[in-house]
Amino acid sequence: MPELVFFSGTMDCGKSTLALQIEHNRSARGLEGLIFTRNDRAGEGKLSSRLGLVTDSVEAGEGFDFYAHLVGHLSAGGRADYVICDEAQFLEPEQIDQLARIVDDLELDVFAFGITTDFRTKLFPGSQRLIELADRVEVLQVEALCWCGARATHNARTVGGQMVVEGAQVVVGDVNQPETVVGYEVLCRRHHRRRLTAAAARAAALSPDVLPVDRENAG
């Protein structure tokens, strides 16, 4: 039976890489799929991985109707055996309903990939609707790591290396960005709660309390 599957995880855990792998495996068996994404780091109409892999996709912007697009594609003689949708957290709940309708009415597998929560630890509306509707929710097993070495479970937005907790929910950025620009960092829950990024931890380590020195015995 066709399924709506939601692959979720933090940033930097390989979601887009898995999307590209699924596309490769299925196309290698003669199947044809449609790929959608929104606000990809590589630009409009691209699905890209941090490993350097990239492919063309359909940009699913605000108001885009997935179901109507699939019906139009099939009615025009096109073929679609499955659907891949990356950055699904950015979609509106109504668009997630359209993906579910593709599974139920057109009997196609839909594989959606996305972050579950934003930099404030709040569910993205698109991710919330996927959790509500998906036949399966798969948490990716490739664990991103916090700077401390623990499993990263939360996404932090940074400006100047410092974590921020206010602002628009959607600001496109990436991990490992220069400290002068808006970027993102994955953290464990403990350090997300403490707002302790890698840059903040380095700054703290460079300015410890000075230990007393016995000058008579020094040197």
From TrEMBL:
InterPro entries: P-loop_NTPase, Thymidine_kinase. It catalyses: thymidine + ATP = dTMP + ADP + H(+). One of its GO terms (cellular component) is cytosol. It comes from the Bacteria. Its EC number is 2.7.1.21. The keyword Nucleotide-binding applies. GO terms for biological process: DNA biosynthetic process; thymidine metabolic process. GO terms for molecular function: ATP binding; thymidine kinase activity. Substrate binds at V170, V171, V172, G173, Y184. The active site is at E87 (proton acceptor). Keywords: ATP-binding, DNA synthesis, Kinase, Nucleotide-binding, Transferase. The keyword Transferase applies. Belongs to the thymidine kinase family. PANTHER family: THYMIDINE KINASE (PTHR11441), THYMIDINE KINASE, CYTOSOLIC (PTHR11441:SF0). This is Thymidine kinase. The lineage of its organism: Bacteria, Bacillati, Actinomycetota, Actinomycetes, Kitasatosporales.
